[in-house]
């Protein structure tokens, strides 16, 4: 072990990186062999850091180790001298699996011997800049310089990217001169556009204004046509890393005959938990890409783990997909294909690509897994044992079916089937063996003729196994495309951790409005349009996105400002008696539902001698800058047409202000007050729940931020319940999830806990972003 560690550090690996590599048996073995091959070529000169870096990169990415010697020699001879050339070499070897390898074809495909001169780089950059000169002069340093880089690199495939960038920078400086003060000013925000009437069914998502993402196209624009550079249906073989077999073109032909060239995607959640905000991006991406390109999208439940699946999860997942405005072309289940999957597993064994193994679950955990002593058992023996597994003649954990392949992360022979004596939600006790994700996912995609298998970046390590399995069984192979996950700070979305929060009583259930599950966001009052707009603003990125909640809340305000009618509510009431009105005085006051557009309707509320205002809208002692009611300062009443002035302050036994006696006069005759406040009269009693972030730190799961674990980071003020709030009568017929703007207070939604006798409102968001908030 010490000798190998020294060998790894000798090629330029840090000691920490070398130790990490040693933990991966497959990778360390491949790297050791590659270094030895290179040393045989180089002799006493040894392996320098440049060659060492390429050897490490090659060892971690090479799937077919019989090509190790060939590739190591080419690296040692400096024929392959850059990451760009290495990527081309790996691609060439994948697409040319047969011996012998043509060195001349290899050299041509990898740019061996091609020298790009400084003059060629200068000419290419000059040509690109000339093409965009007019726009460059107009936008100056706000122009997207990455476009220049991209076009120059396309023209000079094997050029050093750093040299191209330096040349671009130099020529741009020569054209535009040094940056001026105007160049250094922030780009002005685009003018906010009003949210159009949101047509969720049509999913033409309007993106309003700028909340930190810059000017953004709608999701449909981002996904339509060739915007994502995805392959066209039937042209799977044109994508990087796709493996072409002698039967590939025939399979693609049959696929096209079945689909008619239509784009087909799927959203494949596990029905063992509730969807969260990250799933919203996946839903928008999968369903949206199909919709934007006149395709279809399946909702497919990956129901291969009967121990954790419940009916409530199946129902909730479909509800949330439809709530976001999408209708699946069909709802399918992995369990629909259990017999087909079993038959394919038998075929896989017959082809010599799978075997029955008896290693225990603990032995198979991690990456440095010892090789299975049963890997080379006879095919007929594995067929008999697999049949016995199906008939229930083994105990759980006593046998598994494993596939003979190495995954991209170095993991050997992933499990295809395991034994579970748990009745399945749909198939009952018909089966006691269940397929794993690694086995099921790509085969279900193939069976359903999916064209684009869209998944998050962490599944990139499974792409090669995805292709391997389809090709090993000689089946149509879809293309897997990865995109970056959407994460939010100040929350956790792990099913296991949410269950912990529920079990410990921190939150009530999966739909507690402090969580970022989709059911929780709906309960809090987030409109689906706002969530879709947020996903559009984040964009379809390859890199992982971590965003702060206030950016999502900004999207919520945009939608609710145009869709939530106004009402008046007082959270901490203070009684006010207007002494110069008769005891039985009562009038109706008209309040516009949307003051900025009164044509959208109005409602009336009663106005009597007794009203209630917010305690915070009165101060007994005048303070500098305070504009509302004081003994010396009158205040206006919104919509009522009155200005009130203090006559008497009534206090309780503890000296606390209990009631105010005031007089009123018409706002038309009175001097204009400094402020107008909201009020209620003959109101409805209600309960109001105010929510704040659930955790105190941005990354509650990060031990460096929260050493004692996420449960120690709970914000004690994440929920405030006000049980004696008052609201005007315009909301008395509200239904669950109806949304309102309580004037001067915030946006609120009617909670499912409401009864005929007592309404309960959840604060969705405040009216404006709190500058001190996260």
Automatic annotation (TrEMBL):
Organism of origin: Oryzias latipes (Japanese rice fish)
Domain Glutaminyl-tRNA synthetase class Ib non-specific RNA-binding as annotated: residue spans: 3-161, 164-253
GO MF assignments: ATP binding; glutamine-tRNA ligase activity
Known EC number: 6.1.1.18
GO cellular component annotations of the record: aminoacyl-tRNA synthetase multienzyme complex; cytosol
Name the record gives this protein: Glutamine--tRNA ligase
Purpose of the protein: Glutamine--tRNA ligase. Plays a critical role in brain development.
Gene that specifies this protein: QARS1
Domain Glutamyl/glutaminyl-tRNA synthetase class Ib anti-codon binding: 564-663
Signal sequence bounds: none
Family: Belongs to the class-I aminoacyl-tRNA synthetase family.
Domain of life: Eukaryota
Location, primary (coarse class): cytoplasm
Matches recorded under Gene3D superfamilies: 1.10.10.2420, Glutaminyl-tRNA synthetase, non-specific RNA binding region part 1, domain 1, HUPs, Ribosomal Protein L25, Chain P
